[in-house]
Amino acid sequence: MVETDIASCFEAIPHARLMAAVEERIVDRHLLKLLRALLRAGVMEEGAVRRSVSGTPQGGVVSPLLANVYLHRLDRDWQARGHGVLCRYADDLVVMCRTEAEARRALAALRALLAELGLEPKEAKTRIVHLREGGEGFDFLGFHHRYVRGRTRRSRHISFLARWPSRQATQHARDRIRELTARERLLLPVDDVVQDVNSFLRGWAGYFRYGNSARPFDKIQTYALDAARALRGQAPQETKELRLADGRLRVAEPPRADQPQRTRRCLTAESAVAGQAECRR
Asked: What is the pTM of this model?
């Protein structure tokens, strides 16, 4: 199979060709005028507005839509000129092939079709992967995919394509937790911080719940608990009440200065890893 993504896709799409692709289906002149204005609006950097003749608005909600409208030509031409099965989501794509020779033909066809659109694959992420047991895997849409064999006695005779959160996705989760539990957020109510952490992790776990391994969830859960402990300034011996109980994350507040012998009421937040139990089923 071929793994790649499009280099600087959102910055490299030509405006004229993009509007030509839109005009294949849209004839409303008011809408077309609005799209042209969005493309010409430019981006302000350090007080100066920079305009370009290519690229879709960075950070705009319409950018993924316009990119897919333009790359639909790639999907359409692939049916007649491509090799293998193309699977594309925005600028990330893989081509599934039966043999290495077919994969090489598919990569050559992909380069040619992208060149006609004024685009090119990112060389650093372009490679041919042989999916086999014990071989390397590939990352796609945040998941790492790898061909493995079952580990239990009943599944040792079965080989299948497993998936779990990629290293980059796991690192992003750690960075986000670190950002939400940063020291500068100590001025906020603890309830709000815990709610923000749980809100992010519920979404993260909801997306990756369809993987084949619970280990990444265990690691992220442990990291979230450690971040909560650090946020409260608790030493290891003071964190006995910080535990998962009945599907909920209980975080004990440190003793107040005026009441050193007492512990204030525990805060209760929803479990940070809501999809973990279902992944283990």
From this structure: 0.70
